[in-house]
Design brief:
alpha/beta; 638 residues; single chain; five-stranded parallel β-sheet; 4 domains; two-stranded antiparallel ribbon
Length: 638
């Protein structure tokens, strides 16, 4: 008996049966009953007994840890075949080849030569190029990190105590027997950390086999000559993952956030207003500045006293007949008999005061300002500051309104108008027209400033977000979910082999390319015809079902190998040459037998190369390969 083991690649789980009992869809190449299995049975004979085809299913997720777990299971299965002394060949597609490589490393670590493994074939396998983290702590799993840090706590407490006592010249718990007792105590305190370090370092070394030169050298010597790589020169997975580290993936343009941030300029003025309104320090500061810098500068006690008396006379003149008249302090005043004469007398006295004090209007404004914002019930507010301490909303809002109306109109020329009616008109004109104009200009200036800041912030944010997104996309594309290793690229050979065999010859590579191109053309045509129906499909399409319904992975060379009869015969040619296997009579009579033999000879007889896929200058097709790899990381949900 001879066995062929088929290891599928990523995202190639078992084909589900139709729930309605109808015939199952086309089986995948690695499954029992597939076209590939039937052809292997027809084209290959076992030299002793029957030919056994064994699928090796695994989870199929793009996960390095799952691939390594699958490699351990494959190691056990290979061991069973070795015990039976049955010749076997293994075919691994895509990351199925990575699983096979991991299994061989595991066998090399256990010093198993696998004499019955006659050939291992990898098809379109991108072997990850990994680099382990420098420090042990960064390579440990989360649980081991926690244990390791906990083991260091006693040593940490001892070190802190020693430093504290030495710096503080305090007497220590150990007396003056330094350094003998201190050294002994330090050694005992470090024992838990040292013990765990040794154990964790040993466990770490067992899990990173590809970094042990003895193991990799043994794997190369034992299994290197039995390896056959079959990869298309334009394989998207190999080329895409190999070139991905140097790819510049721009997910966020430098100006991606400019419009959103600039939109804040619409609400900037209201925001500034409310920030000032609800800020006690700001309100008190504004009131104090107005009081000291503007009103106290024009203050005159004599003028204020004269104005107060004159104001009492004005109050009397304004009252009607029969009304009770009081001064601002509440004292009763006898109303005059002739109110017209009282008004005339008031104007004459004010003109006299105006002549005596040219800044009388400013003094009067100061009195009015202090009464509104610094006095309550005729008495100064506590602490002599703004009433309410900047926490009274009515006073705060009144003060801000006073600033943009009375203060602004005065600053813009009201003080220069001698005619009181013109001054009154100006005090209305400024708030109604000039204030909105000033605020509009200020808002535009804010918009320009915010836009400049937005451009700067967006550029910085785009670099930061692109860096994070690039790292995550590349990590997801490689499927690197290991704790202590970093994916830095991909090769077309395992890391433990020094040379690669050439890619597929042009004869078979062109056939695969033509098949993939034809599949792409059919998918695009089908999608174009159905694009108007997608919106009304029942059940409605999600992003995933729309892609799976109208597109298949056959549009990629990487997924087309086993759909090409000539390629399947090439694999049969390689297996039939192995010990324990032989070509069937049907195969030797097939016209493709000679052609596949020539292709295989061209691959096997070529000198190996140390060049890597990333060494060559990338072209347009390589850009598409990178795009395909990046696109595979997207998880779409409706």
């Amino acid at each position: 008996m001879a066995t062929i083991i088929a290891v599928h690649g990523t995202f190639a789980g078992p084909t589900a049966a139709n729930p309605d009992g109808s015939p199952p869809p086309e089986l995948q190449w690695w499954e029992k009953g597939s076209v590939f299995e039937k052809e292997m049975q027809d084209l290959i004979d076992a030299r002793d007994g029957e030919l056994n085809f064994v699928p090796f299913p695994w989870a199929g997720d793009n996960s390095e840890t799952q691939r390594r777990d699958a490699g351990e299971r494959l190691t056990k299965f290979m061991r069973e075949l070795e015990v039976k002394s049955e010749p076997y060949c293994i075919v691994g597609h895509s990351h199925g080849g990575s699983i096979l490589s991991d299994a061989l490393l595991e066998n090399a670590a256990r010093k198993r030569p696998l004499a019955n493994l006659k050939r291992w074939i990898t098809v379109g396998t991108p072997f990850l190029k990994l680099r382990k983290e420098v420090f042990l702590l960064t390579r440990l799993s989360l649980m081991r990190k926690v244990i390791f840090v906990a083991s260091m706590m006693l040593l940490l407490m001892f070190i802190v105590y020693v430093l504290a006592t030495q710096l503080g010249n305090e007497r220590t718990l150990f007396g003056n027997t330094f350094p003998r007792v201190w050294i002994a105590t330090g050694v005992l305190a470090s024992l838990p950390a040292l013990t765990f370090y040794i154990v964790l370092h040993w466990l770490d070394s067992r899990s990173l086999l590809s970094y042990h030169s003895r193991i990799t050298r043994r794997a190369k010597n034992n299994f290197g000559s039995r390896w056959l790589p079959l990869s298309h020169p334009e394989d998207e997975a190999i080329q895409g993952l190999a070139l991905l580290p140097d790819a510049r993936l721009e997910f966020f343009d430098k100006s991606f956030a400019v419009s959103s941030i600039t939109l804040l300029s619409v609400i900037t003025l209201p925001v500034i207003y409310f920030l000032i309104l609800f800020s006690p320090p700001a309100m008190v500061g504004i009131a104090e500045w107005l009081k000291t810098e503007i009103y106290d500068a024009n203050a005159s006690p004599e003028a204020e006293a004269a104005l107060s008396a004159l104001r009492n006379q004005l109050i009397v003149a304004r009252k009607g007949d029969g009304e009770e008249v009081t001064t601002e302090s509440g004292a009763a005043v006898q109303p005059p008999q002739d109110r017209k004469a009282a008004w005339q007398q008031y104007r004459e006295k004010r003109e006299a005061l105006q002549a005596q004090y040219p800044n009388l209007d400013a003094i009067e404004r100061g009195i009015r300002f202090k009464r509104r914002f610094f006095e309550a019930g005729g008495q100064p507010c506590p602490s002599g500051t703004l009433c309410g301490g900047g926490r009274d909303l009515s006073i705060n809002s009144g003060l801000l309104l006073h600033v943009v109306t009375d203060e602004l109109s005065w600053a813009l020329g009201a003080a220069d108008l001698q005619d009181r009616r013109k001054r009154w008109f100006w005090s209305l004109f400024v708030p109604a027209i000039i204030v909105p104009a000033i605020l509009g200009v200020f808002a535009l200036l804010l918009m320009v400033v915010i836009q400049a800041l937005a451009t700067f912030i967006s550029a910085i944010a785009s670099k930061f977000l692109n860096s994070i997104t690039n790292s995550e996309v590349k990590r997801a594309a490689y499927g690197n979910d290991t704790e202590g290793e970093i994916a830095i690229g991909a090769l077309d050979r395992p890391m433990w082999l020094e040379k690669s065999l050439p890619r597929l010859p042009a004869g078979v590579a062109d056939i695969i390319t033509d098949y993939s191109n034809a599949a792409a053309s059919q998918s695009i045509a089908k999608f174009r015809r159905a694009i108007g129906q997608i919106r009304f499909a029942v059940p409605s399409h999600t992003a995933d079902t729309a892609i799976s319904t109208y597109f298949t992975w056959k549009e990629l060379v990487h997924a087309s190998y086993f759909d090409v009869p000539e390629f399947r015969k090439l694999i049969a040619q390689a297996i039939s040459r192995s010990e324990g296997f032989a070509p069937s009579e049907r195969f030797t009579a097939d016209p493709d037998f000679t052609r596949t033999a020539e292709w295989l000879n061209e691959i096997e007889n070529a000198p190996g190369t140390t060049d890597e896929p990333a060494d060559r200058e990338p072209g347009p097709k390589d850009s598409k390969a990178v795009a395909a790899v990046v696109g595979s990381t997207v998880k779409a949900t409706p």
